[in-house]
Amino acid sequence: MKQIKIGHISEIESMRSRVITIEDTEIALFKLSTGEIKAIENKCPHKGGKLSEGILCDHHVFCPLHDWKINLNDGLVQEPDEGCVVSFRVEADSESGDLYLYMEDKAYKAS
Amino acid sequence: MKKKLVLIGNGMAGVNCIEQILKLDPNRYDITIFGSEPHPNYNRIMLSSVLAGDADINDIVINSWDWYRENNIMLHAGHTVNNIDTKRKIVSTESGIKAPYDEVIIATGSLPFMLPLPGADKEGVIAFRDIKDCETMMETAKTYKKAVVIGGGLLGLEAARGLLNLNMEVSVVHSNKILMNRQMDETGGMMLQKELQQQGMKFLLGKQTEKILGKGRVTGLRFTDGTEETADLVVMAIGIKPNMAMAKKSGIEVNRGILVNDFMETSIPNVYSVGECVEHRGISYGLVAPLYEQGAVLAKKLAGLETDGYTGSVVSTKLKVSGVDVFSAGQYWDEADTRAVRVQDEFGGVYKKVVIRDGKVVGAVLFGDISDGARLFSMIRSGEDVTGKEKEILLGSGGSAPSNHDLIASMSDDEIVCGCNGVSKADVVNAINEKGCTSVNDIKACTKASASCGGCKPLVADVLTYVLGADGVKTVKEGICGCTTLSRDEVVAGIREMKLTTSKEVMNVMGWNNPEGCSKCRPALNYYLGMVWPEEHEDERESRFVNERNHANIQKDGTYSVVPRIYGGVTTPQDLKKIADVAVKYEVPLVKITGGQRIDLLGVKKEDLPSMWTDLDMPSGYAYGKTLRTVKTCVGSTFCRFGTQDSMAMGIEMEKRFERLSTPAKFKMAVSGCPRNCAEATIKDLGVVAIDGGWEIHVGGNGGTKVRVTDLLVKVKTEEEVLEWTGAYMQYYRETGKYNERTAEWLERVGLDTIKAALEKKEDRLALVERIELALSLTQDPWKEIAETDKLRTTFEQMPVPAMK
């Protein structure tokens, strides 16, 4: 597990998202209305839609292509659709506001 | 230690059985599955939808790769088992994998039956059985024109329909004189043939193929009567045969299929078989419902539960060809000891026949109207006595016919309601009792019943009524989305009366189920708030759909398209040059003239959008929004010899006046300079047609999915009046339309007379115009705003990640 500094909490607006790319993996970062940051792979398991462009509602995002609903806590696709997106742990340093993302050393690849 | 269970065959029957075992006793077995195809388990029945273009291959996967992983199933996809060593209890594959077992299930399904014709091995001769066949057909359709399908049964007709959708010419060869003769009688077959001919299919009936012609690739067919037919592709779809070679070789008893008893046991202990490869009491089934019923019995047996065994199935079929409804079940043909009730309406294209023997319904054929299918099928299965009530079965009655209630009551719990998705009556009942489903849609969302072909909807509705009672199935009040039961009008009234100005307030005050709403209500609320309180409500970008948030149209690959404003479709060499320069500079992959008389730059990267807009220095064309799109115009009196008015100037004026304004759904306009109507104004949301000495205003048209021709709203004399009526009409739509409701639907919902009455008086029109002008005065060009505001601009860029240590 490695810790990667990815930026500052102020770089993302509330209820919006930003995108980062780490080792060829595009990751969508979301700032929930609570101020928490969530990170998932920026690719809907259905047709590869960019989840960063979806509408964020509490800790769920709706894919902009076909409206699949994805839980940002665990990456699980909500019923009645099925599937899973890779999710990442992100922490904000409570003093500096710097964001750190945790990633397995060898990026997990979905088959 | 867990026992080892091996499944040979990764298809619908076998995997469904495994699913049921996992439900009954999830920890009993270590499970290994072998499958020849390199895919997870998919819904073979839906292959015809893939060909028809209604679904793609991903849509028909039933068990995703993740499902196997989550259930700790070892899956060997793409490995064909070639032997079972039943003494040492080891399964082995061609590729050399060996897997020991305690119990093994053979579910190898069936193979397409290929006629052993001379030339059948030529290139371009295929079956219609798996994903690979579908891919071949789609590929062939790109370069070849003419397809011949051998087989006029269910499978053949579905293949033929799919090939028509791929723009091929299709002829269907059938040895019988009647199409679908294994499911249809002559009358039904004739009606079916007529319908399919209208769809463009050609038929060669009563013909036997003798030889397939061609050198390397097929070029045609010759029939036994000496005639020939050309073909670039031949699809053999005459039937299937149980795939039992491996079982036979391994010493398991077979006849036409792998022989099993009522408990799905083969001749060898610990070896079971389910699905199309099986012969049970002399019958091999090729439809999904019986296979699921077999699987259910075997699952109970392997989970160590009591079961009465499998005693055979009555089957029903449904043709999955759009626009043609066919249902057939049981014994549809007449015999000496049967009598039938028939209804035939050649004008309405409806045919119904119910076959009765000894007072019991034994079969049915329905064509054109299959709504009785589920009910008839239940009657066949229950075998109840209908003596004296025969006519009422089809013709209706005063209530003495067997009620749906009784039919549902007589269904056993594991009887399949939805064949496509293998949902049993018990699954539906549980969804109602335990998950609180109260509508067919709820059940669909919960269980996927009726989610595929939709044929079982009436049956699902009957189960619903049976469980909840007629009064229990409340017509649940449908709110604007799943977060609320409030209607559009109630929400808007609340916003006005309580002076709510943010979505958050609306959701708090009006008791939303989800604290932050969903993708349906959030954009809707943002619209309603902006419409009611144009000055007080601050537009919520986070509630806008991606296209409106980014002011560009997202494409399937995540790139965007850019359409600058070209008022009235009238441009200048300078603007064209500017657009061309920008397209070159940003290496735009595709430049297209749109249907709305402007230019679309497609394939633009998100991060390039703001600088592209700056370079263009043209207003946004709003080609992405629920707002005024374009005003299409014809040349009009300026140049055209027929033109009676200056349609270009009128269109430009209208587009400039009403651009940027949010409307419930997109809003398209057009102005034609004379009644020849070259700008196609009568299929627009609002179309203006010049007449001698004045203008006609037409409303509520649509040229999309459901074409609707406009209704005439009013005839006026002057340009000012056109603008006044247009403004008043648009504002009335803004104030009364539902979010996402186009004017065509809106007009039909509220009625043309209501709209006319609302706009009739001059003072009412002026009040509406005043309100629309206020809203218009608050808009600004979004491209300029974003390009010039750093905070907005950065949302278009990726976040730079500091270099890693």
Would you kindly provide a written description of the structure presented here, covering whatever features stand out?
The complex is a heterodimer of chains A (111) and B (805). By secondary structure, chain A is mostly beta strands. Chain A has one domain (2-103): Rieske Iron-sulfur Protein, CATH 2.102.10.10. Chain A has strands at residues 2-8, 17-22, 25-31, 37-41, 55-57, 60-62, 69-71, 87-92, 98-103. In chain A, the strands form 2 sheets. In chain A, strands 1-9-8-4-3-2 form a 6-stranded antiparallel sheet, with no helix packed on it. Chain A has a 3-stranded antiparallel sheet with strand order 5-6-7, with no helix packed on it. Chain B has 805 residues and is α/β, with parallel strands linked by helices. Among the domains of chain B are: 3-109 and 242-302, FAD/NAD(P)-binding domain (3-Layer(bba) Sandwich); 125-238, FAD/NAD(P)-binding domain, CATH 3.50.50; 488-544, no CATH class; 625-780, 2-Layer Sandwich (Sulfite Reductase Hemoprotein, domain 1). In chain B, 33% of the residues lie in helices and 21% in strands. In chain B, strands 3-2-1-7-19 form a 5-stranded parallel sheet, covered by helices on one side. The longest helix of chain B is centred in the C-terminal third of the chain and has 18 residues, at 719-736. The radius of gyration of chain B is 32 Å and the shape is globular.
Order of strands across the main sheet of chain B:
3-2-1-7-19
Distance between the termini of chain B: 47 Å
Oligomerization? heterodimer
* Shape category of chain B: globular
CATH architecture label of chain A: 3-layer Sandwich
* CATH fold name of chain A: Rieske Iron-sulfur Protein
If you compute it from the alpha carbons, what radius of gyration of chain B comes out, rounded to the nearest whole angstrom?
32 Å
The percentage helix of chain B is: 25-40%
At the first level of CATH, the class of the domain at 3-109 and 242-302 in chain B is: Alpha Beta
**Which architecture of the domain at 3-109 and 242-302 in chain B does the CATH hierarchy give at level 2?**
3-Layer(bba) Sandwich
Helix content estimate of chain A: under 10%
**Can you count the beta strands of chain A?**
9
Tally of helical segments of chain B: 27
Uncertain residue segments of chain A: 107-111
Q: Say which CATH homologous superfamily of the domain at 3-109 and 242-302 in chain B is assigned.
A: FAD/NAD(P)-binding domain
Alpha-beta content class of chain B: alpha/beta
Total separate domains of chain A: 1
Strand order of the largest sheet of chain A: 1-9-8-4-3-2
Overall pLDDT metric of chain B: 89
